[in-house]
Design goal:
The protein has 561 residues and is an alpha+beta fold. It folds into 3 domains: 175 residues, 2-Layer Sandwich (Formiminotransferase-cyclodeaminase, Chain B, domain 1), CATH 3.30.990; 165 residues, Alpha-Beta Plaits; 205 residues, Four Helix Bundle (Hemerythrin (Met), subunit A). Helices cover 51% and strands 14% of the residues. Strands 1, 2, 3, 4, 5, 6 and 7 form a 7-stranded mixed sheet that branches.
Length: 561
């Protein structure tokens, strides 16, 4: 599955939008990234830019934007209210999909090294990309700001992680890091009182509230024996919050910034805000998402509320997100369109023609056309998706069977695994066609010079190997489906046992069909050592599949006697 990261560089220019456009133009030149937002601030003289894409493309776009900023922004003339120490002041990378924080931090360091070496800008790595605990905090890296840089760079303790320890008055320095996704999120209240909204904000935010003597609103703040103010922390980590009144809606809100949704997810913030509101005689009527959100956050929220209802989480992605929207009340103030708010959906190319987006009739007609793709590999992956979907259906029916309430979680877990396999197999439906197209593209490479011939040959071999690996992945994922199907035959709703049996038949056909594609694609591969190992494992899967299907169908026959 495609890896996605977000990049949110902050440039020290918020007035001259022509200048900012010269920077963002560099981002938009790079294939594989999409510019999502450009947010200038005149008072801060700072612009926050947001773009998303595959890791290598994001790194290239970020580097080119930093390079352009170093050419067009002169920090010696900069004035602004926001803390800053460079033309590109900070450049955080944020994991979005199918990538870990550790991998994202490694990419941040790779970018930092290139900026330091090629642009000769002092670079400090912060947050998850920091090389030392002292530099994790951005405020520490930026302490002294631009005006204090000459002294800072002269201090051996603050030698940059990359780039020269030399003050460049034009560029200043830059902090490059990796952090979690920040969600701006407002909780709606059935009150117009900012003071009451603030009270809830203080209840939940990590910073909490100061302890006061006597009156807890107007009393003097208590201090400890060292003269430091005494504070009571709030209920949520990685949470900043404040109360305010919104004229447009005529209500008060708790405005929340969740700085690490791995620590405090959106649904947890919502639940705790509801609890604190009730304790103060108020009620949460819904919530509002400001900006964008990763799909995983919405999926986690939907699954959380489904589990609270003792319902299976093994349902479609669309249904899970619908549950999240309704449970969080995201459509309380205005319609909430997931296609406009979830990052992964925004990045989908509306022009891309996907087989899995076709109707059943359309898919069959496309397969029956004179085009060689989709072929047996795509059909095998689709059959496997249908097979595991039947097993998943039985799990969901069993989860909701009257009298089986004590087993909802057991069957829900099976259904969730089935949904995951279904999504992977549906991905492979289109990936098999993409693999075929890669081979066709490789054969179209020029073959005039010896160098071109070598490049063409290497491209053909790489594409051929991938065209083998895709149906092989289909084999393995299809075979995994037997676990769900067999469990449903043995313990699932007996009224649906034949549905699980049909699922087993689908999986058997899918495995053998994908194996045929592995073999025919393997004929053009020169790496015989790699091929021998893969074919041996593929043959073993075929043998296990035939035995497993026979065993499952025998159990089905026993159940329907």
């Amino acid at each position: 599955m495609k890896q996605l990261i977000e990049c949110v560089p902050n440039f020290s220019e918020g007035v001259d939008m022509h200048l900012i456009k010269t920077i963002t133009d560099e981002i938009e030149k790079i294939n594989g990234v999409r510019l999502l937002d450009v947010d200038p601030g005149k008072a801060t003289n700072r612009t926050v830019v947001t773009f998303v894409g595959t890791p290598d493309a994001v790194l290239e776009a970020a580097f080119q934007a930093i390079r352009k900023a170093s050419e067009v922004i002169d920090m010696s003339r900069h004035k602004g209210e926001h803390p800053r120490f460079g033309g590109t002041d900070v450049c955080p990378l944020v994991p979005i999909a199918n990538i870990s924080m550790e991998e994202t931090a490694a990419y941040a360091r790779k970018l930092a090294e290139r900026v330091g070496q090629e642009l000769e800008i002092p670079v400090y790595c912060y947050e998850n990309a920091a090389f030392s605990e002292e530099r994790r905090n951005l405020a520490s890296c930026r302490a002294g700001e631009y005006e204090g840089l000459p002294k800072k760079l002269a201090d051996p303790q603050w030698k940059p992680d990359f780039g020269p320890a030399k003050f460049n008055p034009r560029t200043g320095a830059i902090a490059i890091g990796a952090r979690d996704f920040l969600v701006a999120y407002n909780v709606n209240l059935n009150t117009t009182s900012t003071r009451r909204a603030n009270a809830i904000a203080f209840d939940i935010r990590e910073k909490g509230r100061p302890v006061r003597e006597g009156n807890q609103v107007t009393g003097k703040i208590k201090k400890d024996e060292k003269g430091n103010e005494v504070w009571v922390p709030g209920a949520l980590k990685a949470c900043k919050a404040i109360g305010w009144f919104i004229e447009e809606y005529g209500i008060a809100q708790v405005s929340i910034n969740l700085t690490n949704i791995s620590i405090t997810p959106v649904h947890v913030a919502f639940e705790v805000a509801c609890q604190k509101a009730l304790e103060r005689g108020l009620r949460v009527t819904g919530s509002e998402l400001v900006g964008l959100i990763p799909k995983r956050a919405m999926m986690e929220a939907g699954k959380y509320f489904l589990r609270k209802q003792s319902r299976s989480v093994g349902i479609s992605e669309e249904e899970i997100i619908k549950i999240a929207v309704k449970s969080l009340g995201l459509d309380d103030l205005k319609p909430f369109n997931p296609k406009e708010k979830i990052i992964e959906y925004i990045l989908e190319d509306p022009k891309e023609k996907k087989l899995v987006s076709m109707t059943a009739e359309g898919f069959a007609s496309e397969t029956a056309s004179e085009s060689p793709a989709p072929g047996g590999g795509s059909v095998s992956a689709y059959i496997a998706a249908l097979g595991v979907s039947l097993g998943t259906m039985v799990a969901n029916l069993s989860s909701h069977k009257p009298g089986w309430d004590d087993h909802w979680e057991e069957f829900g877990n099976w259904a969730e695994k089935g949904q995951q396999l279904k999504e992977e197999l549906l991905f492979l439906v289109d990936e098999d066609t993409r693999a075929f197209n890669r081979i066709m593209d490789a054969f179209g490479f020029p073959k005039g010079t010896e160098e071109e011939k070598a490049a063409r040959s290497a491209a053909i071999q790489d594409a051929t190997k991938y065209a083998i690996e895709v149906p092989f992945r289909t084999m393995r994922k299809a075979y995994e489906s037997f676990d769900i199907i067999e469990a449903m035959v043995e313990t699932g709703n007996p009224n649906s046992v034949t549905d699980a049996g049909v699922g087993a038949l689908c999986v058997r056909s899918a495995v053998i069909g994908a194996y045929l594609n592995v073999r025919i694609n393997a004929s053009g591969l020169k790496d015989k050592v790699y091929l021998e190992k893969l074919l041996k494992e593929a043959e073993e899967i075929v043998g296990l599949t035939k035995a497993r299907e026979e065993k499952i169908l025998q159990k089905v026959s026993e159940k329907i006697k």
